[in-house]
């Protein structure tokens, strides 16, 4: 009986948070690393179904870096990453399209439905909502590094996403875009795609789910997690190389989100059961929070 009363207490405790976030859009970026763990993915998607059921409006933007690496290896191709971004030639683009836009995208939407939620996969075969342009990266000597078919999002079809949200469906968006000037496909880093979606929708919150517990002082030591960072400190961590590899575009995407007026962004561990709900429904939260100083 006591246990049942405690369960009811927990429900009542969540009431305030459920009210606060009802009808508000939360963008969740799902990293490829989390999706490698079937059990973790199932629990993350269950949390998302819960959010949708209580009237929040979750929007899912996903990557799939690990699955793309695997598919490239199977095709005899070696991935080349430049500051956390994949060099994307014609053959790589074909694989990214197949793995990210179709296999991963359609399987996430199908899993949400299996768990009792309603989802809509938004890809080139159904409805594309991301449009962009090619990017280059500044090199060490000031030259521009060519990344092939890699782009950034310049426009989001927010009407389609909002209509789905308000119809009680979870939009599931892969990190690929159509090039506005050529009509070709672009491979977009999923962290930056999530930023573009969150700012275009004026989201209440943006949460990056990865396979690390947050930003760490020593990337190999979970205990060195930094719970709270300012934008100034985060920039310094990139400059000094503490933040490395796939964490670079993630922290850069957080900073861009803050620059565009969202007050707080979170990097949390998707392998920790219910980390998403804990982040939203508890005051302490989990993972690393980056907040603007200005
Ligand atoms: N300072 C750091 N703190 C935490 N992780 C870091 C750090 N620097 C580099 N990393 C690496 O970044 C990875 C997360 O980026 P990535 O693999 O792209 O994740 P995702 O697929 O979730 O986007 C971690 O698994 C870790 O190896
Ligand atoms: C340009 C670029 O790097 N695109 C990424 C897109 C997927 C992604 O970002 O996946 P994660 O979120 O799992 O890292 C890539 O090809 O890996």
TrEMBL record:
It is found in: Cytoplasm. Keywords: Amino-acid biosynthesis, Arginine biosynthesis, ATP-binding, Cytoplasm, Kinase, Nucleotide-binding, Transferase. GO terms for molecular function: acetylglutamate kinase activity; ATP binding. Pathway: Amino-acid biosynthesis; L-arginine biosynthesis; N(2)-acetyl-L-ornithine from L-glutamate: step 2/4. The record marks 29, 250 as: Transition state stabilizer. Substrate binds at residues 64-65, 86, 187. GO terms for cellular component: cytoplasm. InterPro entries: AceGlu_kinase-like_sf (IPR036393), AcgluKinase_fam (IPR004662), ArgB (IPR037528), Asp/Glu/Uridylate_kinase (IPR001048), Glu/AcGlu_kinase (IPR001057). Residues 24-269 form the Aspartate/glutamate/uridylate kinase domain. It catalyses: N-acetyl-L-glutamate + ATP = N-acetyl-L-glutamyl 5-phosphate + ADP. Its EC number is 2.7.2.8. Coiled coil: none annotated. GO terms for biological process: L-arginine biosynthetic process via ornithine. Its main location: cytoplasm. Belongs to the acetylglutamate kinase family. ArgB subfamily. Catalyzes the ATP-dependent phosphorylation of N-acetyl-L-glutamate. This is Acetylglutamate kinase. It comes from Pirellula staleyi (strain ATCC 27377 / DSM 6068 / ICPB 4128). The lineage of its organism: Bacteria, Pseudomonadati, Planctomycetota, Planctomycetia, Pirellulales.
């Amino acid at each position: 009986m006591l246990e049942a009363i405690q369960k009811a207490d927990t429900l009542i405790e969540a009431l305030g948070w459920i009210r606060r976030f009802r009808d508000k859009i939360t963008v969740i970026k799902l990293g490829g690393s989390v999706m490698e763990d079937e059990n973790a993915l199932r629990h993350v998607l269950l949390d998302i179904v819960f959010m949708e059921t209580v009237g929040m409006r979750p929007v899912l933007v996903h990557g799939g870096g690990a699955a793309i690496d695997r598919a490239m290896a199977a095709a005899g191709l070696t991935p080349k990453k430049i500051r956390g971004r994949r060099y994307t030639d014609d053959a790589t683009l074909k694989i990214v399209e197949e793995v990210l836009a179709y296999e991963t995208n359609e399987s996430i939407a199908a899993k949400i439905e299996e768990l009792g939620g309603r989802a809509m996969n938004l890809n080139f075969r159904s409805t594309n909502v991301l449009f962009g342009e090619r990017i280059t990266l500044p090199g060490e000597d000031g030259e521009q590094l060519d990344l092939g078919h890699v782009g950034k999002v310049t426009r989001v079809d927010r009407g389609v996403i909002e209509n789905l949200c308000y119809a009680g469906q979870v939009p599931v968006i892969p990190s690929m875009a159509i090039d506005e000037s050529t009509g070709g496909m672009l491979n977009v880093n999923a962290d930056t795609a999530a930023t573009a979606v969150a700012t275009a929708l004026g989201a209440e919150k943006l949460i990056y789910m990865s396979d690390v517990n947050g930003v760490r002082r020593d990337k190999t030591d979970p205990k060195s997690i930094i719970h709270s960072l300012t934008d100034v400190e985060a920039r310094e961590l990139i400059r000094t190389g503490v933040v490395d590899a796939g964490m670079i575009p993630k922290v850069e995407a957080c900073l861009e989100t803050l620059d565009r007026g969202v007050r707080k962004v979170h990097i949390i561990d998707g392998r920790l059961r219910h980390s998403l709900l804990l982040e939203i429904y508890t005051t302490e939260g989990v993972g690393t929070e980056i907040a603007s100083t200005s």
